[in-house]
Amino acid sequence: MSEEEWEVRGAHEDAVEERAHHEPLGQKIALFSAILATLGAIISFLGGHEQNDALYYKNEAVLMKARASDNWAYYQAEDLKRHLAETSAVLVPAATHDYAADAARYARRGKALRAAAEAYDRRSEEADAESRRALRPHTKLAIAMTFLQVGIALASISALTRRRWLLGGAGLFAAIGVALSIAAWF
User: Where are the transmembrane segments (predicted)?
Assistant: First the structure.
């Protein structure tokens, strides 16, 4: 006879099988872990999405600040030309060149450039504020994700050790993680 025909079962195997039929702790833990992993994936996606929004607005703020800087430089150049034209109008006779008209033209252009630079500065500040607002939930979502991961780890340990109190700890960490993820939006 071959060895495959004979099954020798020990008392431990019988006890484990009997316990599995009467106490489906492993199934509960597996389902609990799957739910936590799903919640973790959602929280991770939301945190990444908020982080991307913050980076987009920060990039917009930098772009607007660069445009403002360009306009301020043009404004300063026009203002310098205006000042030189006004000085030339005082020093040089009007018959040679109409420096007063040049000064007025430079003043008009400078005024428009200053308004544009100030508008870009405002838009930069608004985009920077929006970036900070978008990033605010990210930290709480990252902490919430950490609590969910600890909950999953405790659930796994409770499956290995059959300690129900560890499953309670996993539930506590999971509840804190879910609460933090909800609080991130308020």
Answer: 29-48, 141-159, 165-185
pLDDT by residue for the chain (186 residues), tens only, comes to 555 677 777 777 777 676 666 667 778 888 888 899 999 999 989 888 888 999 999 999 999 999 999 999 999 999 999 999 888 888 887 767 888 888 889 999 999 999 999 999 999 999 999 999 888 888 888 899 999 999 999 998 888 888 888 888 999 999 999 999 999 878
Residue 14 lies in a domain: no
User: What distance in Å separates the CA atoms of residue 31 and residue 174, rounded to the nearest whole number?
Assistant: 13
- 19 inside domain: no
Rounded CA gap, 147 and 171, in Å? 10
Domain that holds residue 79: 25-183
Per the structure, how many domains does the chain have?
1
For residue 43, tell me if it sits in a domain.
yes
Predicted model pTM: 0.64
